[in-house]
Specification:
Length: 191
């Protein structure tokens, strides 16, 4: 991907840094050898905000917004999060499946021509995470609801700081939607 607003990136990394006022995420290019390339975007989420909103910027100066996501409703356990481009164009949405998430976190992902469903890969780790606050590695797999084909995976690495490898085998998934979902998974699970 040569442009951070390009429509598709097959693989990238998400790194989180926690500060006093915001959760900060860096979206980083994944090079073919598995190493890190350049930073595509920086995202921030205000801590303790009543309405979930995350804006992605082109760099640390935060002068050029690229895209973001925002909850449609405040204080809704199953709120829909709309992902929009900098100009306000809706790119898609994601939503936590609250009922299914009681034991195993699950989400809906929607974009143009795409309806996908994803949940934590390992049910045992999902249950353990609810009772133990340890930096466990966990993974999400999203599949196309119509075909069952893989759409997106987000794999958390075992570390004290959150780091994810996001793989997107389905070219229908806009990079901005994939990056928003990856950050949303972390933010909504209070990681």
């Amino acid at each position: 991907m040569t442009n951070p607003t390009a429509q598709y990136a097959p693989r990238f990394f998400v790194k989180q840094r926690i500060t006093m006022m915001v959760n900060r995420y860096e979206i980083i290019e994944a090079l073919p050898d598995g190493s890190e390339g350049r930073m595509f975007a920086v995202a921030q989420q205000k801590r303790l905000a009543m309405k979930e909103q995350v804006t992605f910027y082109s760099d640390d100066s935060k002068t050029q917004p690229l895209f973001g996501f925002r909850a449609r409703q405040m204080m809704d356990l199953a709120s829909v999060y709309d992902v929009t481009a900098a100009d306000g164009t809706v790119l898609g949405s994601f939503q936590k499946d609250f009922g299914a998430s009681l034991l195993r976190s699950s989400f809906h992902l929607n974009g143009p021509g795409l309806e996908a469903y994803g949940q934590e890969r390992n049910a045992a780790i999902a249950i353990v995470r609810r009772f133990v606050d340890l930096p466990l590695a966990f993974h999400f797999d999203f599949t196309d609801r119509a075909t069952g084909a893989p759409v997106l995976t987000s794999e958390r690495q075992f570390s004290l700081r959150d780091r994810y490898t996001v793989t997107v085998p389905d070219q229908r998934v806009d990079f901005r939607l994939a990056a928003s979902l990856a950050v949303g998974l972390d933010a909504l699970m209070a990681r």
